[in-house]
Amino acid sequence: MGKAEFGTPKYFSNQMKAKGLQKLKFYCQICEKQCRDDNGFKCHIRSESHLKRIKQVDSHVINDFSKQFQDYFISSLRTYHGEKKINANRFYNQLIQQKDHIHLNSTRWSSLSQFIQDIAKQGIINVKVEDESDQSLNGLDISYINNSSEEIMRKNNLQKHIDNDKSEEQLNMKLLKDQIKRGEQLKKDEEEEQEENKALNRPADDNPIKIKLGGLKKQDNTVNQPKKLNAFKVSKPSKANPLKKNVLKN
């Protein structure tokens, strides 16, 4: 059966079918040809051009395809997801949306799980199994491990900043605790001082206290008493001094 002529409806139908993503098992990586069904793929692998290229394939070609697939897988994982985890099967489905990518069936790995186990042993990715009883890739999460020198330096600097922040935070907490302790001590001292002042202060309605020094003075009862006269005592006439009289006259 020959090819459809250019411009015919059959030609445009074939072109539209070829644009979509088709089954990977019907793709020939050596010839870079996509077949639409099993019958077309069988016809292709029996063709003379395919057989000539197959004879030229050796271990170097397989290793080259394997290296290209691994580099494309890891670079896409690093670019689109970084170090965040993602389901392995979902990421692979995103990866094969591009038709010209290196297909897994042309590499030395027979399945995606075998490929993931291999690069996980190399320390390139982290693998986390959500459900160990699930043998499929639906419960398998992967994440990229960045081991570059720039990333290691960045992580070291980040860790230093975190340690400095922690030490500064601890110092601030210590200073804050000391301030709180001093404030509580000052408050306690003020309360004690107020209690002492309150004990020494006299109430407003209290009378003044008078203190007399020198003891009590004996009361004199003879001030207002009348003077007693002696009836038997006779008053004597006063004697005149002649000398005094003469002095006054002169």
From TrEMBL:
GO biological process terms, semicolon-separated: DNA damage response; DNA replication
The opening ranks of the lineage are:
Eukaryota, Fungi, Dikarya, Ascomycota, Saccharomycotina
- List the PANTHER family hit by this protein, alphabetically: DNA_RNA-BINDING PROTEIN KIN17 (PTHR12805:SF0), KIN17 KIN, ANTIGENIC DETERMINANT OF RECA PROTEIN HOMOLOG (PTHR12805)
Where are stretches of biased composition, namely Basic and acidic residues?
A: 196-209
Q: Where is this region: Disordered?
A: 185-250
Q: What is this protein called?
A: C2H2-type domain-containing protein
Which positions, given as ranges, span the membrane?
A: none
Annotated Gene Ontology MF terms? double-stranded DNA binding
Q: Name one Pfam family in it.
A: C2H2-zf_KIN17
Domain (C2H2-type): give its ranges: 28-50
Q: Name one GO cellular component term.
A: nucleus
